[in-house]
Specification:
By secondary structure, this protein is of the alpha+beta class. It has nine helices and four strands; from the N terminus they run βαβαββααααααα. A four-stranded mixed β-sheet has the order 2-1-3-4, with helices on both faces. The structure holds glutathione.
Length: about 240
């Protein structure tokens, strides 16, 4: 039975962290909302009218048989051992989950740069606040989060440049996506700080060259970044010249 991934059609968004894990592992999955009736089925799940005793609050969620798992970090916690994307011992799994939850926080802050006041309102209605939020994000939050991951990479026992040691984990794939997203959204700020994160830059490069990831990135399954996703490029929110 293939896994079923439920996520808004047309954007990478948070669903991309799951896609990258499934793609790297060569797992069989159906990206449900890319089919004509998928979004309708997803909405039924979210309304609780699908006969399941538990309904997720928001996408992404993954269906594996009768099991429905929500939240990016939770889905990856579930998939990690099945896909061979995390060591199986408890300590490693908890460390990986802690790192992934830190990525969740970071992604949420990246989202808030363009929607600092209300997710339900247009960016155009919160541009002044978005500029203030983005300025602080670039000045304080990107360095704090990326500095942390860079430090974790430098203290990792891995001699291959991965964050947990002993091979790639789903956290490395998510860090690739975070770096891709930040470079898309804030190209000038990321260029200006390029020299500060050599290990993250090397990891980004390394992940992009993994055969399954390279094939995925070239395929139609990889949706482009856009101003409907989490990482959005509004030039006015980036570093000035
Ligand atoms: N913590 C959740 C966040 C899920 C989330 O915010 N999903 C967004 C799409 S990326 C959504 O549809 N949210 C609906 C809402 O917050 O009302 C995760 O990491 O998966």
């Amino acid at each position: 039975m293939p896994y079923e991934l439920y996520y808004w059609d047309g954007i990478q968004g948070r669903g991309e962290f799951i896609r990258l894990a499934l793609e790297d592992a060569g797992a069989k999955y159906i990206d449900k909302c890319r089919s004509s009736t998928g979004t309708q089925v997803m909405m039924e799940f979210l309304k609780g009218s699908h006969g399941h005793d538990h309904m997720p609050f928001a996408p992404p969620f993954l269906k594996d048989g009768e099991l429905v798992v929500s939240h990016v970090a939770n889905i990856l916690f579930y998939l990690g051992p099945k896909l061979g994307l995390v060591p199986e011992d408890e300590k490693s799994r908890l460390i990986a989950n802690g790192l992934q939850l830190t990525i969740t926080d970071f992604v949420s802050e990246a989202h808030d740069t363009h929607h600092p006041i209300s997710t339900g309102d247009y960016y155009e209605d919160q541009k002044t606040e978005a500029k203030a939020r983005s300025t602080a994000f670039i000045k304080d939050r990107i360095p704090k989060f990326l500095g942390y991951f860079e430090r974790m990479l430098s203290t990792s026992p891995s001699d291959e440049g991965f964050i947990l040691g002993n091979g790639l984990t789903y956290v490395d794939l998510s860090l690739f996506q975070v770096m891709e997203g930040l470079h898309y959204a804030f190209p000038k700020a990321m260029k200006a700080s390029e020299g500060s994160y050599p290990r993250l830059a090397a990891l980004r490069e390394k992940v992009s060259k993994r055969p399954n990831i390279a094939a995925y990135l070239k395929s139609g399954r990889r949706l482009p970044f856009s101003e409907s996703g989490i990482f959005r490029h509004y030039p006015e929110l980036d570093l000035g010249d």
